[in-house]
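[retry 2/3] Type 1 glutamine amidotransferase: previous attempt timed out, resubmitting with same input.
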Amino acid sequence: MRLAGKKVIALVDEEFEDLELWYPVYRVREEGAEVHLAGLTKNKTYVGKYGVPATAEYSWDELNAADYDGILVPGGWAPDKIRRYSAVLKLVQDFHAAKKPIGQICHAGWVLISAKILEGVTVTSTPGIRDDMENAGAIWKDEPVVTDGHIISARRPPDLPPYGKAFCDALAGE
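[retry 2/3] Type 1 glutamine amidotransferase: success.
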């Protein structure tokens, strides 16, 4: 298992896109990594857009990027909530400063925008936030998956297979 010993944070809040959270979480776990779900409130169960629950094992305030190897930010409507919390923005900024893998899909780009880490970065997202991404200084591409250094981005659920592989490859250092 090429990701044995690796630890990843997956962010959750109400109305995350169910597939965009769970598919990457299971994909990373299949490769041997440990994944911790983190939300505003520890032990709270958050519900995805389509009713799939996810219970936060940690609160954002408890986490330190130095203790983890990567972070996953799901899409849905959760990113618009998640990006309002300084603890999340600091986590994302710390992962960015350490050049550790940051996975974002669909509307998750909003979190990276608010963390102010997209200047000059080539990314993709749902086309609905293309203007937001470009206004934050990103170079936007309409491709299933875009990897620019340690930032791995995807557009929407049909792109999950190549996104999951790209994130795992980055986590493995490949």
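[retry 2/3] Type 1 glutamine amidotransferase: Helices lie at 18-30, 78-82, 86-97, 109-114, 130-135, 160-172.
[retry 2/3] clearing retry counter.
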